[in-house]
TrEMBL record:
Superkingdom classification of source: Eukaryota
Keyword Signal appears in the UniProt entry: yes
UniProt xrefs under InterPro entries: CS_dom, HSP20-like_chaperone
Signal peptide range: 1-15
Protein name, as recorded: CS domain-containing protein
Regions that span the bilayer: none
Taxonomic placement: Eukaryota, Sar, Alveolata, Ciliophora, Intramacronucleata
Organism of provenance: Paramecium tetraurelia
Length: 271
């Protein structure tokens, strides 16, 4: 309490000094005599704009002790490091990294749940300090964006999904564990979707961890996926069989033609 009161008095004394250094020399001498001139006071003087006056007193009057000079030097170095750090952040923000977040999704007949992981792949650690989350639904496109300045490098996350069917424009979302968030989307029409996106090239992993929590709808969804997979397999088999049949027909024709020509040559030879 005594130390805090003493420093408050020193702050008050420094506040009364003018920027032209009036009374500064006498004040510093008094502080040195009373052993009040510590690192904190030196730093306070520098931040209040008395850095040049202190340097002048060092060179002309040599009234600053070496230990105090080291404090002043350290304070200036710290300020320079902070400025350099800000400069790096500004430079890196100009050249930001753009990443698509990882998506897992599950559904009931009424809702879609989407887990967003802000990472460059599913098995990578999520980014920390993710901020500026934005979720928008425009023209049936779901837009997800956020950013992180981890390691002083600005990383922007952005993903746009053309949803398979229409949903309610009011989308609920909340930040979960570090670097993840969950979206709760209400469907306009109560039914299961075979895909999340209209774009067939979009392959989003299923959030199977919610299968027990959601229950029957996720079981029916699983059956839909199995039926679709079986349908695609059968379609490939039929296509392969059809291609094989089309290829074998010309072969049979060619064999018959070759046999006929050979037979004709034999007849011409003997008759």
């Amino acid at each position: 309490m005594i130390i805090f009161t003493l420093f408050t008095i020193i702050q008050s004394q420094i506040a009364q000094l003018s920027l032209n250094g009036e009374g500064l020399k006498e004040q510093l001498l008094q502080m040195i005599d009373e052993n009040q001139l510590d690192c904190q006071t030196i730093q306070l003087l520098i931040t209040r704009g008395f850095g040049q006056q202190i340097l002048d007193l060092i060179t002309t009057d040599s009234i600053i002790l070496e230990s105090h000079l080291q404090c002043a030097k350290q304070s200036i170095q710290n300020d320079l490091l902070q400025l350099e750090s800000l400069k790096k952040r500004f430079t890196n923000h100009e050249n930001h990294v753009l990443i698509k977040p990882i998506i897992l999704w599950a559904q009931s007949r009424a809702n879609i749940l989407i887990k967003v992981k802000f990472a460059h792949r599913i098995d990578a650690p999520a980014y920390i300090s993710v901020k500026n989350h934005q979720i928008q639904y425009l023209n049936q496109n779901l837009q997800i964006s956020a950013e992180s300045d981890q390691n002083n490098i600005l990383t922007k996350f952005y993903l746009e999904i053309p949803l398979l069917n229409q949903v309610d424009k009011t989308i609920g979302w909340q930040v979960e564990s570090v670097g993840t968030m969950v979206l709760n989307i209400t469907k306009i029409e109560s039914k299961l979707w075979l895909h999340l996106s209209k774009n067939k090239n979009d392959k989003f992993q299923i959030w199977w961890d919610l299968k027990e929590q959601i229950g029957k709808d996720m079981e029916d969804f699983s059956k839909m996926l199995d039926n679709q997979e079986d349908h695609l397999k059968n379609k490939k088999k039929q296509q392969k069989k059809s291609d094989s049949s089309q290829q074998s027909s010309p072969i049979k024709t060619n064999i018959f033609v070759a046999f006929f020509l050979k037979f004709k040559q034999w007849l011409n030879k003997w008759f």
